[in-house]
Amino acid sequence: MSTTHEEIAVAAPRGIPALNLRELIDTNLYMPFPFQSNPHASEAAVGVENWLRTWGLTDDPAVAAMISYTRPAELAAYNSPAVDSGLLQIMANQIAYQFIFDDQAEDIGLQRPGRLLPMLSESVRILRDGQPPDTALGAALADLQRQVQERCTPAQAARWAWNSREYVHGLLHEAVAQSHSAPLGSGLCRSIRSLIAGIEPFHPLCEAAQPYELAPEVLRHPVVRRLGRLSVDAAVWIADLFSAVKEQRAGGVINLALDYQRAHQCSLPEAVRLAIRRINSTIGEYEELYDEIRPELSPSGVGYVDGMGGWIPGCYFWSRTVPRYADTMAASAVP
Fold first, then answer.
1. For the residues 77-102, what does the mean pLDDT come to?
2. Which pTM value belongs to this model?
3. Coiled-coil ranges per the record (predicted)?
4. N or C: which end of the chain has fewer CB within 10 A?
5. Helix axis angle, 85-111 relative to 61-70, nearest 10°?
């Protein structure tokens, strides 16, 4: 049974058939992490609104509406319950920016992948070379990079920029896959999903939340790197469970549940069950590896891994109540 808190409806007990996909997910998903929220969440929400308004990103009513039903500050607060208000604000701003960037890239890419190139090239020029922006979206990214550089060490900021560029490149992969007529293989689907997860850029911010910068050998440790991969996959795949209905209606293909549905030619509820098994296994491996290496880590190392792992319950508790994925409650759990 998944752990919930008093503001989130308790999942249906095992043995009672789930009525909708959200109940199906709640009943079957292994969620060993409790609900937590950062006490500065409301402050961060106001800060996001002001920051987006400053750069003109919510001048479009459709974008403003998307932000209101996506709740980026809430996602940041659930993912990072222990960080200070300043770092939480950077995270919330970045989540809001990435939702806007991702939605715009998806809209353009569905029409023609090549039309994405100016948008993606501008981001790479800003992140890699510090070039001045050409658009309002680019100006917001440049300001976000400034915030990161002011808060992080040079090495952390460099890792943030590198991870952010990988995310940008991944969106082109997604656009090509979306426009391809041939069926997408499962391995390729999961590979693209890992590129566009958009979570790795937050890992240097998890490090910046610690009292001491981590040594390179800790960051490069195979188990620590594996924990990072497992936490990202589990978190983004959990979001895929709740977004599957939305993505299916929009014609999306880069989604774990939809991938299982294509591969097994089954109903969406059955595909969700298969995806949950994969996620449960991933979370189980994360727990086992963390138990093994935790005694070897410094307090800063523990805090860093906890920061990465916080995205697993964060994405779960955010996804199950955010209006962006409200269709999950209306979708039947009966195959």
1. 98
2. 0.92
3. none
4. C
5. 130
Say what the pLDDT of residue 16 is: 59
Decide if pLDDT at 249 tops 80.
yes
The average confidence (pLDDT) of the chain is 92
Residue 289 CA to residue 274 CA, distance in Å, equals: 23
| pLDDT interval class at 271 (50, 70, 90) | very high
Q: Which two tokens stand for residue 319?
A: 């996804």
CB 333 within 8 A of CB 244: no
Q: Which residues contact 302 (CB under 8 A, 6 or more apart)?
A: 294
| Cα→Cα distances 61→49, 56, 68, Å | 13, 11, 11
Rounded CA gap, 30 and 161, in Å? 33
- In terms of residues, how long is the chain? 335
What are the angstrom distances between the C-alpha of 279 and each of 16, 90, 222, 269, 328?
A: 22, 28, 21, 15, 18
> Which is nearest to 186 in space by CA: 106, 255, 248?
255
CATH numbers and ranges of domains, the chain = 21-330 (1.10.600.10)
pLDDT at 180 over 80: no
Break the chain down into helix, strand, coil percent, rounded to 5: 75, 0, 25
What interhelical angle do 311-319 and 299-309 show, nearest 10? 30
Contact 305, 297 (CB under 8 A): yes
Inform me whether the pLDDT recorded for 2 exceeds 80.
Answer: no
